[in-house]
Write a structure and sequence with these properties.
alpha+beta; 3 domains; binds ligand MIG
Length: 678
C-alpha cells in the first residue's frame, strides 16, 4: 500500500480525501509521533529537500523556515511571514527514502522545516486530533501523484477562463467597465473576462447589484457576452446586517449564521460594516448560501470569485468596544514608549484577531464547534457551497469559480488566486515558485494578480509579469484601489503588451490541453525541473525555471533592468524568443548553463527535445480561436512524432480523455508548421 493513515485522537472530518484508507497499525517508520508534545517529527538529511505547503512564502524547497497553516488575510507577503490565505498541509520529504505527509485537520498546524534545528522537521498540532497520511513512492513526483489520487480530481473551469481577464478594485460603474472593453478593443488587445470587484454591489451586500451604477445589469451582461466577454463578480463571506436585506433576514430567521458564546448571531465587521458570517459548515446553511448565487446566474453571470473567506474580520463588535474603553484611558496622558505603542497596537490588532476566531461557533455534523477548531475549512466550504449549488442549478455547464482562502479538498470545487501581492519584482518570483507548490497540492487553476495588487507598478515589471503570466492557467491583471492604474492600454508600449497577450492566445491549445490532461490524470500542469530530471543535481536546485506541461520549460526574467538571465538546460532544447505570434526567432541550445538575452517584451520559451507545442492563430477571445487548424512549435527527431491534443467544447461537464484526444503531426500541419525535424 502506498498510502498509510494514522489516526491521532478524534479528527474533525474535512472531506479532503476521496477514498478510505485503512488505518495503519504500529509505529510509523518515517515519523516520530509524540502525543504529549502534540508533535510529529523526523530527521532531515543534509541534502534532503522538502516540497509542498502550497500557498506559502519562500521557495519551492521549504527548508530553512517555519510556516503556519492558518488561513490569514495578510496583504504583505514578505518573507518574514508564516501564513497566507491557504492551509495546505502536504509535504514531501525528498531524501534517501522519500515520503509524503498530509496532516488532515482543520485546526492550525505549525511546520518547522529545519528552522530551529537544520536537521529536524517538526510539525506541531493545535490538538492531538488529525488524520496523518503517509505516502510512499519511488520519487517526489511519484508521491505527489499518489497524493493527488487520494484527494481527487482538480476543478476544471470553462475554456474561456483560460483567456485573459482584466480586473481592478475601483471599477465603479457600467461606464468604467465599458472603458476597459473599449481600451482592449481599440488597441487590439485580446480579452475574455472583466472582473467586478465589490464596487458593483449595492452597499457591499452580497448578491445585489447597484442599480444606479448598472441600470440594466442583465442587458449589460448580455451585451458584453455577445462580444465574447464574461463579467465575473466577487462574492464576500460576510453578510451585511441590514433590515430589509433578504439574505440577512432569511439567514437570521433560519439560524444560518455563526453564533457567539451566548447563542446569538456573531457580529463581525468587514466592508459593509457589521456583518454576520454564514455558517458554511452547516449543511442547510451551505445549501441556502449556494442557492443565492442563482440571483446572478439568472442575470447571465457564469463565473465568480469568493473573497474574504478566511474569514477576514476587520473587527468584532465586542473587541471594538473594549478597545474604545481602553483608548478612553489614554486620553490626556503623556504617552511614552510603552503606552504609545500599546495604543497603536490595540487599534492595529483589531483585525483578524485570534480572540475573535475563538469567540464564535459553528454547527458541524450535528455538533457545536468553536471556530478556531475548523478555521481552515471555512473558505473551502464557502466555495463548496457555490460549487454544489451550481451542480444543482446548472448541472451541464462549467461555471468559473475561484476563492481566496482554501484548504486541500477545495481544489475539487474551485481554483484560487494568490491573494494580495504587491507590484514588486520579488513577487513575480514568488508567483513562479508558488505555482509549483500549489500544483502539488491540487490547485491547478491558479495565478497571481499580474502586475501586483498593492503598490505602483512600472511598465517594465508589467511586461515581465505578462511574459510569465501567459503560462498561468488563471491569467488576470488585478490591482488595488489607489494604486497606479495598471491596464496595459494605459502604458506607452501597447504594442509589446499586444504581442504578449496574443502569444497567450496562440499558445492556448497547448495550455488548455496540458491543463486538462493534468486535471484528468491527477498530474501537474507546472512542475519544478527536479521532478522531470531527478538524477540531475543541477536541475534539482533550480527554482526560477518551471516545466509547463510536458513539452515546455519557461525561464522568466524577474529582475529590473536585466538584459537577460542565466538559464540551466538539463538537456538540449529549442529556444523561441517571442515578441508576438508574428515575431519570434529560434535557436538550438545545448544542455548546460547559458546566459540568454531577453528584451523587456520577449518571452523565452524552451521546447524540450522530441516534444511539440500546438499553436493556434491568435484571436480576440477564446471563443474565436480556430482549434481545427493548428500549427506546431518544437523539434522532433523522427517524422512520425505527434502531439496528443486534448480539446473539447469548453463548457460541458463530465470531461474525460476518451474521445477528446487527437494526434497532431508535423506532416499534417505541413506549411503552417514551424517544426524543425532533425
Ligand atoms: O482586502 O474587494 O484580495 O482582490 O480587490 C480588500 C476588494 C478586499 C481583497 C481581495 C482583493 C480585492 C479586495 N479585497
Amino acid at each position: 500500500m502506498e498510502v498509510k493513515k494514522y489516526i491521532l485522537g478524534t479528527p474533525i472530518e474535512t472531506e479532503a480525501a476521496v477514498y478510505e484508507v485503512e488505518t495503519a497499525e504500529g509505529p510509523c517508520p518515517y515519523l516520530d509521533m509524540d502525543a504529549k508534545a502534540m508533535e510529529i517529527s523526523c530527521r532531515l538529511g543534509k541534502q534532503d529537500m522538502v516540497y509542498g505547503l502550497g500557498q506559502q512564502v519562500r521557495g519551492i524547497n521549504k527548508r530553512g523556515w517555519k510556516y503556519v497553516s492558518f488561513c490569514s488575510d495578510d496583504p504583505n507577503h514578505t518573507e518574514n511571514k508564516v501564513s497566507l490565505y491557504g492551509a495546505h498541509n502536504f509535504l514531501v520529504v525528498n531524501g534517501e527514502k522519500p515520503f509524503g505527509i498530509f496532516l488532515d485537520t482543520p485546526e492550525q498546524v505549525s511546520f518547522d522545516v529545519g528552522y530551529t534545528r537544520p536537521d529536524i522537521l517538526s510539525i506541531r498540532l493545535s490538538s492531538w486530533n488529525a488524520k496523518c497520511y503517509v505516502i510512499e513512492g519511488r520519487s517526489a513526483y511519484d508521491i505527489v501523484k499518489t497524493f493527488r489520487k487520494l484527494i481527487g480530481h482538480s476543478y476544471i473551469p470553462p475554456k474561456w477562463a483560460f483567456g485573459f481577464g482584466q480586473s481592478r478594485w475601483g471599477y465603479q460603474s457600467q461606464r468604467d467597465i465599458e472603458e476597459v472593453l473599449e481600451g482592449h478593443e481599440a488597441n487590439g488587445l485580446p480579452l475574455d473576462m472583466i472582473y467586478l470587484d465589490i464596487d458593483y454591489m449595492d452597499r457591499y451586500m452580497d448578491f445585489t447589484v447597484d442599480e444606479e451604477k448598472f441600470p440594466d445589469f442583465p442587458e449589460f451582461v448580455d451585451k458584453v457576452k455577445r462580444k465574447g466577454i464574461h463579467l465575473v463578480p466577487i462574492i464576500d463571506a460576510g453578510v451585511k446586517i441590514k433590515e430589509g436585506y433578504g439574505v440577512y433576514e432569511e439567514g437570521t430567521a433560519k439560524g444560518y449564521f455563526c453564533k457567539d458564546q451566548d447563542g446569538k448571531d456573531f457580529v463581525g465587521a468587514v466592508w459593509p460594516g457589521r456583518v454576520h458570517f454564514p455558517d458554511m459548515l452547516q449543511e442547510e446553511a451551505r445549501k441556502w448560501f449556494g442557492e443565492k448565487y442563482k440571483v446572478l446566474l439568472d442575470q447571465g453571470i457564469e463565473g465568480f470569485w469568493n473573497d474574504m473567506n478566511e474569514p477576514a474580520i476587520f473587527y468584532s463588535q465586542r473587541r471594538l468596544a473594549e478597545v474604545f474603553d481602553r483608548l478612553e484611558g489614554c486620553k490626556g496622558k503623556n504617552l511614552d514608549i510603552d503606552s504609545f505603542f500599546e495604543m497603536q497596537g490595540m487599534v492595529q490588532g483589531l483585525s483578524n484577531h485570534r480572540e475573535d476566531y475563538e469567540s464564535f461557533y459553528h454547527s458541524y455534523r450535528g455538533e457545536r464547534i468553536r471556530h478556531d477548531r475548523v478555521h481552515n475549512i471555512y473558505g473551502y466550504f464557502m466555495t463548496r457551497a457555490a460549487a454544489e449549488a451550481f451542480e444543482r442549478i446548472a448541472p451541464d455547464k462549467r461555471i468559473l469559480l475561484f476563492s481566496r482562502a482554501s484548504y486541500i479538498g477545495m481544489h475539487r470545487y474551485g481554483g484560487i488566486w494568490m491573494g494580495d501581492n504587491h507590484s514588486w519584482w520579488s513577487h513575480l518570483l514568488l508567483n513562479i515558485k508558488m505555482l509549483a507548490n500549489l500544483n502539488m497540492c491540487g490547485f491547478l487553476y491558479t495565478g497571481a494578480d499580474i502586475g501586483g495588487f498593492g503598490s505602483d507598478v512600472t511598465e517594465d515589471l508589467l511586461l515581465r509579469w505578462y511574459a510569465f503570466g501567459i503560462f498561468t492557467p488563471l491569467m488576470r491583471n488585478h490591482s488595488a484601489l489607489g494604486t497606479r492604474r495598471q491596464e496595459t492600454y494605459r502604458f506607452a508600449d501597447i504594442e509589446s503588451f499586444r504581442g504578449l497577450l496574443r502569444l497567450r492566445y496562440m499558445l492556448l491549445p497547448y495550455i488548455y490541453s496540458e491543463f486538462m490532461k493534468a486535471a484528468l490524470q491527477d498530474d501537474l500542469y507546472a512542475k519544478p525541473l527536479a521532478f522531470a530530471f531527478p538524477e540531475d543535481s543541477m536541475a534539482r536546485g533550480i527554482e526560477d525555471q518551471l516545466l509547463i506541461g510536458d513539452s515546455l520549460m519557461v525561464a522568466p526574467v524577474y529582475e529590473q533592468n536585466a538584459a537577460g538571465r542565466y538559464v540551466y538546460l538539463p538537456e538540449g532544447m529549442k529556444l523561441y524568443r517571442m515578441r508576438s505570434p508574428e515575431d519570434m526567432d529560434e535557436e538550438m541550445l545545448a544542455s548546460g548553463i547559458h546566459y540568454v538575452l531577453a528584451a523587456p517584451n520577449e518571452v523565452l520559451l524552451f521546447v524540450r527535445a522530441g516534444k511539440l507545442v500546438p499553436i493556434a492563430k491568435a484571436a480576440n477571445c477564446v471563443a474565436d480561436l480556430d482549434m481545427e487548424h493548428l500549427g506546431l512549435l518544437g523539434f522532433v527527431e523522427c517524422e512520425d512524432a505527434a502531439y496528443e491534443l486534448y480539446d473539447d467544447d469548453g463548457y460541458s461537464k463530465g470531461c474525460s480523455l476518451e474521445g477528446h484526444i487527437r494526434k497532431i503531426t508535423p506532416k499534417e500541419v505541413g506549411e503552417g508548421a514551424d517544426t524543425c525535424i532533425c
